[in-house]
Amino acid sequence: MTSVTGEQVVETGAVVPVGRRSLVPIVGAIVFAIGAALVGLLVGPVHLGLGAITREALSHVPLLHVHSDMSATDKAILWQLRAPRVVLGLLVGGMLALAGGSYQGVFRNPLVDPYLLGVAAGAGLGATLAIAYGGGTVDSYDLLPLAAFLGAAVGVACSTVLGHAGGGSRNPAGLVLAGVTVVAFLTAVQTFVQQQHTQSLQEVYSWILGRLGTAGWHDVAISAPYIVISSAGLIAYRRVLDVLAVGDDEAASLGVNVRRTRLAVVVFATIGTAAAVAVSGLIGFVGIIVPHTIRLAIGSSYRIVLPLSLLVGGGFLVLADVIARTVVSPAELPIGVVTAFFGAPFFAIVLRTSRSFS
Amino acid sequence: MSGFVVSDLSVTLGGTEILHSVDADVASGEWVALIGPNGAGKSTLLRSIAGLCSYGGSIAIDGRDVANWSRREIARRIAFVPQAPLLPADMRVRDYVMLGRTPHIGEFAAEGAADFEAVDRAMRRLDLGHLAERRLRTLSGGEQQRAVLARTLAQDAPILLLDEPTNALDIGRQQQVLELVSLLRAQSELTVISAMHDLTLASQYADRLLLLAQGRLVAAGPPHEIATEALVATHYGANVRIVGEGGALAVVPVRRSG
């Protein structure tokens, strides 16, 4: 039956716009992200029922007059512990996946991740300096995101300047090499500082592995503006990224300002990633696995890959966080370990399945 | 329809002068083939006209200097196909053809009904309707070539620049592609400039040949005046015989020894 429909489409030569084709996957991704968020709110040492959570949420909607029978403790667990953690997971995961997909498009390199140009190494150095020299732990937690954010910005700025000197805007490979150089240097400095302050090793290490554990509304508030603006900027470039897929010259001959586009995408992706890293540490793998899974399963057009990366990346990280805080409960696994441990085999399965279909 | 004039065009890349004071005049609706030995500057001339490299001198389309035109404005007048177009393997044919509409769609806007119509029309004209949903990597070489041409048609630019359009195709495919370009040119009143290595095909399809050698334009005129045994010997260092004329003109290499 389906083949008949297919033939009719062929005969009329009807052109189905990419936008309409992407509707089903987008709805699916929204459902996935909402489902992941619900799991994140439901799962934990204290049982909160789905009905209780729904009633509690609706009781805050004006004019509905829904009565919530949740205890004060449960309310605190829901609103002060789980909700900010879920929201931060959605923001950070979505941002990392979206930035990864954008970097891959703008550099036309499938192996690139959002940490390419020194975001992670710079943030790592900034965080290490904050932990080592920032005084007491309590104080340094306010300083930490700022230091990480500034470090990330400095790292990428160094790569960009160095890459530009090597013909970076005409030759993306020059920028990538500059990134490798800067990452190596910043990592060396960070290791040096770390060795000088061995008492802070544990704290630096736990930051590097990434966590949503300390997430409160404060972390959401300081990172959300950057992440929202960056995401909107990157999504706006989704169609232009498709044009870049035919190469710099052809894209230019189609009227695209390639240099300006590459710069804008790198700036948006970097700011968003830096904000995400500043509050959550270095959570690896999301920026590579999520966009590629979408490419293999749905399609390679950035008009689909970018919005889906945002939604699926967010949901993926929330689920990874649920695993991180339940498998060795009451202790917690670093979330970076979970994303890699479950992400890698999953990616391998996706790769195998899609190969056998093509 | 658009014609253009290239005056005193010079291009220097990495300290080496690639083109030296080239003057050329291409009439509206004309098919001009750029010929010349390897490294003569054919591709560079095409890239300058497409606005892809900086140059000295001037290029004017329909009497207007393009120096201050934006990339998008140039793209609405000139479609460019490089020697080996990069085809994103997983892109569907229809989406690839839609890329041709880029200069007509706002940078952050979505395509409109006119764009879908243009894509539809371009695919029908190149007989790609039944391949619209296929991914580029699943097409044959000839089908890929047609997809590239459909993209340039969707671009709706009056000037078509082709860098070695028959490169790496067998003799049948070469003929098919050039016949197709000839047909599209007649239907859409396109001005075509193609860089070509095959002197026989260049002579048979183009109205005029421009012979470049070492970055200079050394001869220009109708094929029977340019594809001559003397000029080919001088600039290519090749021993050839010219047989036939018009659509049957052939430049035949003749072995020197034996």
Automatic annotation (TrEMBL), chain A:
Protein species of origin: freshwater metagenome
InterPro entries per record: ABC_BtuC-like, ABC_transptr_permease_BtuC
Membrane topology according to the record: Multi-pass membrane protein
Main location: membrane
Molecular-function GO terms, alphabetical: transmembrane transporter activity
PANTHER family listed in its UniProt record: ABC TRANSPORTER PERMEASE PROTEIN MJ0876-RELATED, FERRIC ENTEROBACTIN TRANSPORT SYSTEM PERMEASE PROTEIN
One annotated Gene Ontology cellular component of this protein: plasma membrane
Leader sequence segment: none
Alphabetically ordered keywords of this record: Cell membrane, Membrane, Transmembrane, Transmembrane helix, Transport
Protein name, per record: Unannotated protein
Family to which this protein belongs: Belongs to the binding-protein-dependent transport system permease family. FecCD subfamily.
Pfam families: FecCD
Source organism phylogeny: unclassified sequences, metagenomes, ecological metagenomes
Membrane-spanning parts: 26-50, 86-103, 115-134, 146-167, 173-193, 214-237, 263-290, 302-327, 333-351
SUPFAM superfamilies hit by this protein: ABC transporter involved in vitamin B12 uptake, BtuC
Location(s), subcellular: Cell membrane
Record bears the keyword Transport: yes
TrEMBL record, chain B:
Range of residues in the leader sequence: none
Species of the source: freshwater metagenome
PANTHER family associated with the record: HEMIN IMPORT ATP-BINDING PROTEIN HMUV
Annotated protein name in UniProt: Unannotated protein
InterPro entries associated with the record: AAA+_ATPase (IPR003593), ABC_transporter-like_ATP-bd (IPR003439), ABC_transporter-like_CS (IPR017871), P-loop_NTPase (IPR027417)
Key words of the record: ATP-binding, Nucleotide-binding, Translocase, Transport
An MF annotation (GO) of this entry: ATP hydrolysis activity
Residue ranges occupied by any ABC transporter domain in the UniProt entry: 4-239
Pfam families hit by this protein: ABC_tran
